[in-house]
Amino acid sequence: MTLLAGFDPGQRVVVTGAGGFLGRQLAKRLRTVGVDVVELSRASGFHLLDDPLPLQGVDHLFHLAGETGVVEAWDDPPRFHLVNSHGTVRVLDQARLAGCSVTYVSAYIYGTPRQLPIDESHPVAPNNPYAFSKWMAEQACEWYAQTFGLPITVIRLFNVYGPGQSNRFLIARIVEKMLDPATPAIELMDLAPKRDYLFIDDAVAALMCSRPTSGYQLFNVGSGKSHSVSEVVDTVIQASGISKPVVDKHQARPNEIPDVVADCARLRTVSGWTPRVSLRDGIVRMLTPAET
């Protein structure tokens, strides 16, 4: 039985969070294959907790809207829970009434890994309010799929990066500092943690093959490799040809995770998706964004 499908010209799709880093690229990609895209975002005046979704005649809904950021989540856990958990329930219920399938974009929620790589059967252990809010939203997705038969795919994205990303995120911040002549040195909190970094184009490609035909589907989406902060810095130096002093403050974040590697065999098996852009190639494309 086919679990997932792609998109055909003329289909109508709604993307919440379409003004964000991932949402912009997803909407652009959908249009290149002839899909009619309805973009909903804060910039367009859409309020996730208040506004109805325009779902009449819609074939599929991508739900990307929400609060992001681990550091910010520690400052306001109730806000993150309200927007990411309750907001997702509002979206799911409207999709149920409209009869359209859903892709929900989740996040890394496994905590400190018991083994590497991490597959979807690994125990969930959210270690910050952001991860907790995404896990609660996943629970709502599974419940709506099981209770109402709503076709839902949950995508657990690992660390996505690429051109146009906010400097709140590590790779974008390092690239910005490296290219800024006014920045004499690169100061970083901790060079040791390793993460699975996935280029934006590979993340979008995974979403493009995520439309569920039935039931509840759950997939990890990452590169399948991990790189330390130090390795990221070295790669930026090599790719840019710019060398600056690097200062390691040795200040680990609360509940820091030492290493993360995604096992994406499940999605690869059912869709053929595989990541194609290496860390070096992705950083080169961030250094020359006009070529992307």
End-to-end gap: 36 Å
Strand order of the largest sheet: 3-2-4-5-6-12
Q: Categorize the overall geometry.
A: globular
Strand content: 15-25%
Question: What is the level 1 CATH name of the domain at 4-159 and 199-222 and 261-275?
Answer: Alpha Beta
Q: Radius of gyration, Cα only, in angstroms?
A: 19 Å
Return the structural class. alpha/beta
Instruction: Please trace the helix and strand order, writing H or E for each element.
Output: EEHEEHHEHEEHEEEHEEEHEHH
Weakly predicted, low-confidence segments: none
- Biggest beta sheet summary: 6 strands, parallel
Mean pLDDT: 95
Classify the fold: give the CATH topology of the domain at 4-159 and 199-222 and 261-275.
Rossmann fold
Instruction: Identify the CATH architecture of the domain at 4-159 and 199-222 and 261-275.
Output: 3-Layer(aba) Sandwich
Enumerate how many helices there are, as a single number: 9
**In which range does the helix fraction lie?**
25-40%
**CATH H-tier superfamily of the domain at 4-159 and 199-222 and 261-275:** NAD(P)-binding Rossmann-like Domain
Number-wise, the strands total: 14
